[in-house]
């Protein structure tokens, strides 16, 4: 309580009249960040932030042939690749880049792996190959975007997709991962194409073309001729076919799909006929991921049940015989069979654990923990388990949300509220490790609500499509209903509610401020869309068609008129409460111009506006020092809002 009292006293000292802010922008540099109108951060806030930022997590990447693992974890500023030889063994760091490693995959049968890394968050990913000892060698060309590497079973062939600046089209590349000079162009595609699997004889590559986050199409690429044959059943279905891979000697495909139903399920598809056979349990929840053992006999897949993950294991030939390993309740972020099929690796996180790696013995069912990540200086007793609630929106739709309530709040306390809106929009807030929600609940004494508004994933295709195109603002109305719901709850202060979001959630924060400024004390938005028309013009070319399929096509006069009407920038005069805006200068998705223009417009209207711009970040802040500063600024800003 003493710390919160000091925050409130500090907030009173930094109040800046809107007229004074309009007259002058106070700018200073902290590390790589330019801070505008942000006051100095008190030391007690820095100390509080560190308690919640010094945790460590482990993320499974791949198995090595000898049964050891590659994981990524952070010992310094960024996530790097580490080798773990056995459960509980030390993590031996293998990479030491200043930039974070995005992922690592083992070259089959080799003690060699391919890793993905960009520069400053620009998402122009490069691929590198490295042995367990030695230096990482580049496989790709600078100023290209390289992704989706897949391997032949003998490790002699790798195929991936490559985009170049200014083009929306991807090419299919191939190389022997042991020889960068063998790199060659196999096929120049149209649109967002990428490899999914390679046939056993290395003659055919299974390709996917992304139409939108609701639809993709599968194709077969003949490696010898470069000829591509579309699989017509995927075109007719107008659905998603995720994680497709060859089975039955290349005569069939396994995939996760929502074709013919509301929820995603695991199916086996006969290529010749297009006939689908469901392999997953017949539940009204999405299958989110799966793996098939090397011998092709055992399936493991995860079900997303109201945000929580459950692992199911079955035989490919008798899928109705299902078992479920006994794992801690939470969210599974990776699963993969060991090369011999005897173990199943699982990355798992939950509300009170940052993330670790486990394995399941497929014979005995025994569960073994491989990593034990540190919680830093956090008191586990103060960590909150979120409550899953549902509230009614303007049209009667039931909307789920996770609510974090401070553990040390008095029974009669009326607490401030932070509504934290996820990005995507096709993402889903889940009960995984969320240091921000835990921090705000403990340090600010705020109730943190994380809604899954219409358009969120995890609740079926119909729910996912409820905000498409001209229906965009219906999801904003969900936030309006949540504001009203929170104001009626005991323990929540209707006079102290703030909105908060990143990426698409940043747009939602801005839009909510234009709708409900009279009910809110202010908002925080990180790299959010302020105008869909300028966003479409400036987002990287390789993303544009995908985003048009979700948001609507700005080239259509009717849709353009909708964008003109709903853009927060066009309605910025309705925002009357303070805003904090943060941005990465290298963001290829939501470019800096989206933040620059809304900051200028807010200040032009005399609205108190803080702005933080990171020179070495993109879409999301990946370096620890930058994230620390971000949380410090948020703390000072929100403390001031809640003190008024």
From TrEMBL:
SUPFAM superfamilies: alpha/beta-Hydrolases, DPP6 N-terminal domain-like
Protein name as catalogued: Peptidase S9 family protein
Signal peptide range: 1-20
InterPro entries in UniProt: 6-blade_b-propeller_TolB-like (IPR011042), AB_hydrolase_fold (IPR029058), Peptidase_S9_cat (IPR001375)
Ranges where the Peptidase S9 prolyl oligopeptidase catalytic domain occurs: 440-642
Source species: Blastomonas aquatica
Keywords carried by this UniProt record: Hydrolase, Signal
PANTHER family: DIPEPTIDYL PEPTIDASE FAMILY MEMBER 6, SERINE PEPTIDASE S9 FAMILY MEMBER
């Amino acid at each position: 309580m003493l710390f919160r009292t000091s925050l409130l006293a500090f907030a009173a000292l930094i109040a800046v009249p809107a007229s004074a802010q309009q007259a002058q922008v106070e700018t200073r540099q902290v590390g790589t960040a330019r801070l505008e109108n942000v006051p100095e951060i008190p030391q007690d806030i820095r100390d509080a932030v560190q308690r919640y930022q010094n945790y460590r997590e482990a993320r499974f990447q791949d198995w090595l042939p000898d049964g050891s693992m590659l994981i990524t974890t952070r010992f310094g500023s960024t996530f790097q690749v580490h080798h773990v030889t056995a459960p509980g063994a030390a993590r031996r760091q293998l990479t030491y880049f200043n930039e974070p490693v995005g992922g690592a995959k083992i070259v089959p049968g080799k003690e060699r792996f391919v890793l993905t890394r960009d520069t400053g968050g620009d998402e122009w990913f490069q691929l590198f190959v490295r042995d367990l000892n030695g230096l990482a060698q580049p496989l790709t060309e600078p100023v290209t975007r390289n992704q989706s590497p897949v391997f032949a079973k003998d490790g002699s062939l790798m195929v991936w997709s490559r985009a170049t600046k200014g083009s929306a089209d991807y090419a299919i590349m191939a190389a022997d991962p042991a020889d960068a000079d063998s790199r060659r162009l196999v096929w120049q595609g149209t649109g967002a194409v990428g490899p999914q699997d390679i046939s056993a004889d290395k003659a055919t590559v299974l390709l996917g073309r992304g139409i939108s986050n609701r639809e993709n199409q599968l194709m077969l690429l003949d490696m010898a001729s470069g000829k591509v044959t579309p699989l017509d059943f995927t075109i007719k279905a107008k659905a998603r076919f995720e994680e497709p891979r060859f089975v039955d000697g290349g005569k069939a495909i396994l995939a996760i799909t929502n074709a013919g139903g509301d929820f995603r399920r695991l199916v086996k598809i006969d290529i010749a006929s297009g006939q689908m056979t469901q392999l997953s349990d017949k539940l009204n929840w999405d299958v989110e991921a799966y793996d098939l053992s090397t011998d092709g006999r055992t399936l493991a897949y995860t079900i997303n049940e109201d945000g929580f993950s459950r692992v199911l294991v079955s035989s490919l030939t008798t899928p109705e015989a299902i078992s479920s390993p006994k794992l801690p309740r939470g969210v599974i972020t990776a699963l993969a069979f060991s090369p011999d099929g005897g173990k199943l690796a699982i990355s798992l996180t939950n509300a009170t654990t940052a993330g670790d790696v486990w394995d399941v013995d497929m014979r005995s069912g025994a569960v073994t923990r491989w990593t034990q990540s540190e919680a830093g200086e956090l008191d586990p007793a103060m960590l909150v388990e979120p409550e899953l609630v549902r509230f009614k929106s303007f049209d009667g739709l039931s909307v789920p949300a996770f609510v974090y309530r401070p553990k040390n709040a008095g029974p009669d306390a009326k607490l401030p509220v932070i509504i934290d809106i996820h990005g995507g929009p096709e993402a889903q807030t889940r009960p995984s490790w969320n240091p921000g929600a835990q921090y705000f609940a403990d340090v600010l004494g705020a109730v943190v609500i994380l809604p899954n508004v219409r358009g969120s994933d995890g609740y079926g295709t119909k729910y996912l499509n409820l905000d498409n195109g001209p229906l965009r603002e219906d999801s904003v109305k969900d936030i309006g209903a949540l504001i009203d719901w929170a104001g009626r709850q005991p323990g929540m202060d209707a006079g102290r509610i703030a909105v908060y979001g990143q990426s698409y959630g940043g747009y939602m924060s801005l839009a909510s401020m234009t709708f409900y400024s009279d009910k809110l004390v202010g908002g925080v938005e990180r790299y959010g869309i302020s105008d869909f028309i300028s966003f479409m013009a400036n987002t990287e070319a390789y993303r544009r068609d995908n985003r048009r399929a979700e948001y609507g096509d700005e080239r259509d006069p009717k849709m353009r008129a909708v964008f003109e009407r709903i853009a927060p920038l066009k309605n910025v005069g309705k925002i009357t409460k303070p805003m904090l805006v943060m941005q990465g200068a290298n963001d290829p998705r939501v470019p800096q111009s989206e933040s620059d223009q809304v900051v200028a417009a807010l200040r032009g209207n005399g609205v108190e506006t803080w702005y933080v711009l990171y020179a070495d970040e993109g879409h999301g802040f990946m370096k620890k020092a930058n994230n620390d500063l971000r949380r410090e600024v948020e703390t000072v800003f929100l403390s001031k809002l809640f003190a008024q």
